[in-house]
Amino acid sequence: MIPILGTHEEKKKIIEKQNYATLFIIKTFYNKKDDEGKKRIIQSGIVDILIFIFERRELSQITRNYVLAFQVLSYPYSDEIGQLLYQKNPFPGLLRLLEHTYNDVAYDGLLSILNIIVDDFNTTPNNSHRPYYDTINACRGIEKIMKLFRINGNKKTKDTAAICLGQIFRAKEINDKQMRIELIRHLKTLVNDTDEWTQSNSKLTLCYLALNAVNRAEIESDGFVIPE
After folding, report:
1. What is residue 2's predicted lDDT score, i.e. its pLDDT?
2. Which end of the chain is more exposed for a tag (fewer CB within 10 A), N or C?
3. Domain co-membership, 29 together with 70
4. Same domain, 87 and 177
């Protein structure tokens, strides 16, 4: 894939090629491990173009296929693939997608961020410094995800935003008191959610947050105990 340059007709052909490439990636890697295949795609430069599109193209012109093509590369989880994607500095572009008016695009961008963070979760000790926190915070990512959590009416997106933020902080204190109250209160409502993924990840996220004394006090403030 290449950026859109040239005449109207040339731009049209480039978009057609990009659409074909994204559909190929989705069809090839959807729900598949295939680390070697994903590595080739990442190293080919296609991911760089996707990130460029996320950062620069008008949001209204970014269709879901572009974001889904990135998202399928980030899942199923792989430490190596997660690191390769992280090295491409994808967070500014992915965070920009949270402002998209089409919820599925915003959700896939959010899920891509979460997938990369989960890779870090699998490799970073519980009490260690988290490089992704600094990277995301530097581009106002925490603020942007919190805004999505507060204004988005879609349950799946709101729940995922809460889990994503909790995993960004993990054992670090959520020092904004109002944010801490809102996030932890919402996560506590999810531990018995009917969706298995939401239920298990909300429990895991609360366990990580509870490693910090201030967060733990908020979690346990009403006698709440994290279910096993």
Report:
1. 45
2. C
3. yes
4. no
